[in-house]
Design brief:
mainly alpha; 63% helix; 3-stranded mixed beta sheet; 5-stranded parallel beta sheet; 961 residues; globular
């Protein structure tokens, strides 16, 4: 879209000419000041400011420009505008050639810009002028809304920034978060590789929200006003507009220096910034957005097409337009509003007649569709009559209580399929419930899991903590809140989950079903923390209570704990049997009733750990698809973490890293996250070691050191193993063994079943490491455990292969190593198989060099296919020692896919995992058209005619056949 011109941005609240104070951005402003300090020292660079619409990107740029001017720095400011159509290069040229102090030679530069065929000379001239100006003092070049810039502006910026990197020029760019055009994504990738600093703007915290509320209303906010302010979820623009509408509509009363709502919770209203975006839409896109608002929750394009009487293909342009306007976002194959206040603005702007018509259409949908949304104040569908304003105060509590009950019923019905709208309704019910109402604590306990499932963990915890601090909370209500907090803590802090569950179960006189669920949660938390003996004892007590209550939800959780206990005892047949039963129970009950992580997730992990990687990967792919469709952010993240582990051991390192990065939440307010510790952080360390990515390995070694001091034994064990692997990669086997001291000497009841390892395939790794350190006894211990595990599970060939591999290394026996290679042949664990081939080849090389070469060649192929550059280099050295030189593979081709380019291979793998073309395009930052082109060429080269056939081919090649 060539829509560019320099613009002057209005900052929310500046209508009267006064700019309100900037709240909640102290860290960001300090970062900007530090970059300006560096600029004063002659150090240039690039800073990228990123965040969603309304988060305050333009305000940060304005503050940076003002700070630079106060220092005497020359500032050039430009911005792209989606509403204007001007010549290419408009944003950059206007920024450099306009203002109080334009670049020297502005007239000539403008002539070059408007003369056909002179753009090369324009670029040269711009570079020269900027160099000349920078010699006289530092420069700050600000470019806002990069996502709207044309390709020539992006190319010119890239060229100038690279060519002037040694000069005192700081480029400050702002770009919208989320999906951006492919040209913009390419630019962002280039500047990231060039060392650009990144400043991601997140939502404001509660303190900043309160201070802005006071700024806008002129008085400290009461709790009811703060609850309304929190609906903006920390988005400054929405917050200021929401508060301004309350102020201008006389819906706030100030008494004694405190601002309170004049009546009950305010009705939905139009917010100006959202209304402007809505007005810019075409008629077709506006109609689509209104139809989505009538549904309320995430909705498929197919359903919207049906409601609007059109084909899905006919809505493509309207969908794209609504996404580009940041009104809607994609969630799997569904569309959802980016913010509840956006949806409410759409509803309010539609008018009563249109809203009623749209709501009627939505209510005629089939079973399972989301019911109509009710307005916060009345519970009636949009357009229905509101209660009379002269209702008596005696009537109001009764009306509010009735509406709260209706909202809770709606939330319960929606929880299994649409947790986002369910959470919204539960929160509305809470707003309508007085602080001293006896049912308030129970509503909080219902709301916490819904917020957690939709990615609002911080808000959920604050709600629970505030409830526990309430005077007069009865044991039953406290127990329910603690159960909700224990569930919330599972991904973040295993020990906190145990603490909350134990405290709740110890309360006197609580209902038997609540006690049963708390004991089940206690057993699950202990199991996840690695305290196996305690988990088994807690589970025994929980079974009695759950049986007395007839609680199938607690039974599903406890069955998963039984499976984990069997796994710890190395009885994998029983572990699988219990895991399958737990998954079936949870599936029959519906995921919303699960007390723990989805039981199917444990089944996938179990399958993966015992060598059934294809089964595990299929389960993970399905889990990600379903949870994304349902809007279950927390569960999707758990599945991504799990899949990253599976992909790692399957030898798909780039994909494992991509999943780990996708599941990462930088600076999570609830802490680093124990589940992330034992999945994605472990994966990132292993991938870094295999790919010889030393900076990343160092970064995750620091994480591992933190993990070593965690309260949960399992997290300490993972941290120890990560540090041991890092030390071994540096040629320090003694240090590596020292890192494992705590694990190897921990109480036998809680010691990991694999002697401190996190996976059976690590047994040969530990043996090799111990032998290098001269720790023969520890190597023998690892072999004995591997052989015992294989003997207890004779049907699992993968376990027999790892045991033979470990024994062959300990005894330095060629026959045993070759037996391990044979057993690994049908195993999908690519890296384990390659390691056995390499060890056998190294042993053969001592006396039978010619026989060693085929083994080393096969290992080289498998490592290359996995992208394990460090392992590839090591095997090449072994081959060179035998007089054999293998040419490095072409960087544009994959070892497993010699017919395809690297880009085609990436698309093929994503499509084989079940992604649509659009989803693959978003994943790879490409256009859907480009993905389709890659896929067509791949189909032709591979001689396949369907996605199903392609998926079967991928699985076949990934198996190493």
């Amino acid at each position: 879209m060539s829509v560019n011109r320099v613009t002057t941005r209005a900052v929310p609240g500046e209508g009267d000419g006064l700019r309100p104070p900037l709240r909640g951005r102290d860290a960001e402003l300090a970062f900007i000041e530090a970059r300006l300090d560096a600029l004063d020292r002659g150090e240039g660079g690039i800073v990228r400011v990123e965040g969603p619409v309304g988060i305050g990107r333009s305000r940060i740029l304005a503050e940076a420009a003002a700070a630079a001017r106060r220092r005497g720095t020359r500032v050039f400011e430009g911005a792209a505008d989606p509403d204007a159509r001007v010549a290419p290069l408009g944003p950059l040229l206007e920024g450099l050639l306009s203002g109080e102090e334009p670049l020297p030679g502005a007239v000539r530069l403008r002539d070059l810009a408007t003369t056909p065929g002179r753009r090369f000379w324009l670029l040269q001239e711009l570079g020269d002028r900027l160099r000349e100006t920078a010699r006289n003092g530092p420069l700050l070049v600000v470019l806002d809304d990069l996502q709207w810039c044309d390709d020539l502006t992006l190319l010119t910026f890239n060229t100038l920034a690279a060519g002037l990197s040694s000069h005192a020029i700081l480029w400050l760019l702002a770009v919208r978060g989320g999906s951006v055009p492919s040209g913009v994504r390419t630019t962002l990738d280039r500047i990231r590789r060039a060392g650009a600093h990144e400043l991601a703007l997140g939502p404001l915290d509660d303190r900043a929200t309160a201070r802005i509320t006071e700024d806008v209303l002129g008085a400290a906010p009461a709790p009811d006003v703060l609850r309304v302010a929190r609906r903006a979820e920390g988005i400054p623009q929405l917050l200021v507009e929401l508060l301004g509408s309350l102020r201008d509509g006389a819906e706030v009363t100030i008494e004694g220096g405190t601002a309170r709502l004049s009546a009950g919770p305010p009705a939905p209203r139009e917010l100006p910034s959202v209304a402007r975006r809505l007005d810019r839409l075409s008629d077709g896109a506006r109609e689509l957005v209104r139809a989505a608002a009538a549904v309320g929750g995430p909705v498929t394009v197919a359903l919207l097409a049906e409601r609007l009487g059109r084909s899905s293909a006919a809505l493509i342009t309207a969908v794209r337009e609504s996404l580009d306007a940041d009104l809607l976002s994609e969630s799997g194959d569904r569309l959802a509003f980016r913010h509840d206040l956006i949806r409410e603005t759409v509803e309010a702007a539609a008018g009563p007649g249109e809203a009623t018509e749209a709501g009627t259409e939505a209510r005629t949908t089939g079973p399972g569709q989301v019911p109509e949304a009710r307005t916060a104040g009345t519970g009636d569908p949009p357009g229905a009559d509101r209660p009379h304003t002269d209702a008596t105060e005696a009537d109001r509590p009764r009306t509010d209580a009735t509406e709260a009950d209706r909202l809770r019923t709606d939330a319960a019905e929606l929880a299994a399929t649409a947790p986002g709208p369910a959470a919204e309704r539960s929160l509305r019910a809470l707003e309508l419930t007085p602080a001293d109402a006896p049912e308030r604590a129970r509503i909080i306990a219902e709301t916490i899991p819904l917020l957690w499932q939709t990615g609002q963990a911080v808000r959920a915890r604050e709600l629970g903590v505030s409830a526990l601090a309430t005077d007069g909370l009865g044991p039953g209500d406290e127990a329910r809140v603690r159960l909700a907090l224990a569930r919330l803590a599972v991904p973040f802090d295993f020990s906190e989950a145990v603490r909350q569950a134990r405290a709740g179960a110890a309360l006197p006189g609580i209902p038997v079903d609540v006690r049963g669920r708390l004991l089940a949660m206690l057993a699950a938390g202990l199991s996840m923390a690695g305290e196996h003996a305690k988990a088994e004892r807690a589970a025994a007590e929980a079974w009695e209570t759950a049986a007395a209550a007839g609680d199938r939800s607690a039974e599903a959780t406890l069955t998963t704990v039984r499976s984990a206990v069997s796994f710890h005892r190395m009885d994998l047949t029983e572990a699988f049997r219990q895991a399958e039963r737990a998954a079936a129970l949870a599936d029959a009950l519906g995921v919303s009733t699960s007390l723990w992580v989805p039981e199917a997730l444990w089944h996938a992990l179990l399958s993966h750990t015992t060598g059934r990687s294809a089964e595990a990967l299929a389960a993970a792919d399905d889990g990600i698809r379903v949870t994304r469709e349902q809007g279950r952010t927390a569960a999707t993240r758990m599945w991504l973490m799990t899949r990253s582990r599976i992909l790692l051991e399957a030898g798909r390192l780039a994909e494992a890293r991509a999943d780990a990065e996708a599941a990462s939440t930088p600076a999570d307010p609830l802490g680093p996250g124990n589940l992330a510790d034992v999945t994605l952080r472990y994966v990132m360390m292993r991938v870094a070691l295999h790919t010889d990515d030393r900076p990343t390995a160092r970064a995750y070694a620091a994480e591992a050191r933190r993990m070593r001091s965690d309260a949960a034994p399992v997290v300490r064990h993972f941290g120890s193993w990560m540090l041991a692997l890092k030390a071994d990669s540096e040629g320090r086997p003694d240090r590596a063994m020292a890192e494992l001291d705590e694990v190897m000497t921990s109480p036998a009841a809680d010691r990991p079943a694999y002697a401190g390892l996190v996976d059976p395939a690590d047994a040969p790794v530990l043996v090799r490491l111990a032998l290098r350190a001269g720790a023969h006894e520890r190597a023998a211990q690892a072999v004995a455990l591997a052989e015992r595990r294989a003997a207890l599970n004779p049907d699992l060939t993968f376990l027999a292969a790892t045991a033979a591999h470990a024994r062959g290394l300990l005894d330095n026996d060629l026959a045993t190593l070759l037996d391990a290679v044979r057993r690994y042949e049908d195993c999908p664990r690519v890296l384990a198989r390659a390691s056995a081939l390499e060890d056998a080849g190294a042993k053969l090389a001592v006396t039978r060099g010619s026989e060693a070469v085929p083994h080393l060649d096969k290992a080289l192929t498998l490592y290359a296919r996995a992208g394990a550059e460090r392992d590839v280099a090591r095997v090449r050295r072994r081959l060179r020692a035998l007089g054999v030189r293998r040419r490095p593979r072409s960087p544009g081709r994959s070892g497993a896919w010699p017919e395809l380019t690297a880009a085609e291979t990436r698309v093929v793998r994503l499509v084989a995992r079940g992604l649509t073309n659009r989803e693959a395009a978003d994943h790879l930052a490409l256009s859907p058209h480009t993905v389709s082109a890659h896929l067509r060429r791949a189909f032709t080269k591979l001689d396949v005619t369907s996605r199903g056939e392609l998926t079967r081919l991928v699985r076949h090649r990934d198996s190493g056949e």
